Amino acid sequence: MGIRVARAVVVLMLPLLALVGCGPASSTGSSASSSGASSSAVPSDPPQSSSDAAPVDSTCPATATTSFAKSKFLLHAGLAFGAFHRYLWKPYQAGTFGKGASGRVGAFIKGGLAALFVKREVRLASEDVKADPTLCKAIAAPLASIGNDVQGAVDKLKGGDASGLSGVDSTITSAENSASRNGAPVVENDNPDLSSTPN
User: Which of 55, 25, 59 has the alpha carbon at shortest distance from 149?
Assistant: First the structure.
């Protein structure tokens, strides 16, 4: 009688054991596939914050600290430099910021938004290069200069002084050259979404 009861219990337990056995295997498989996917994707950016208005820190670490640092640096630097050239440097060269120029007011509105956007993207790029001590030593200081000077350059431009813009453009060229020499050539993105600029 005891043997029959034991057999009945085993027969009833088999489906339950099969279900339990399938559960962890499928979740382990999905976790492995998701970790595999995350290793090939660049992580998302941090949210916008009031720290975007603070001076850019150009100190460098002794060792690498962040994953995907070079990829993220190239993304943010490309956006920052592309926005500067599209919305500030090229309109300046075309005379759009001059008194009486057609589209002057709109150019200044977009230029102001672009300055905030550049400052934010340069801050993110600066945080990214800190994960690579060699790259950081080469371009952290120029990045900090760009981030700290771009808004002042726009303010000067409103008074007719373009020297600030010329200085930022020169520093961007220097940063791009240094990045390229250190294995991180920046490709400018001249179609940035300025609506992501913090208020």
Answer: 55
Q: Has residue 82 been placed in a domain? A: yes
Residue-wise over 26-39: b if at least 16 C-beta within 10 A, else e?
eeeeeeeeeeeeee
- Structural domain count, the chain: 1
pLDDT per position as a tens digit, 8-37: 444 445 444 444 444 444 444 444 434 343
Structure-token pair, residue 30: 């999905």
pTM of the model: 0.68
Both tokens assigned to 53 = 């208005």
Q: Answer whether residue 36 is part of any domain.
A: no
Does 151 reside within a domain? Answer: yes
* Angstrom distances, CA of residue 21 to CA of 27, 30, 35: 11, 15, 22
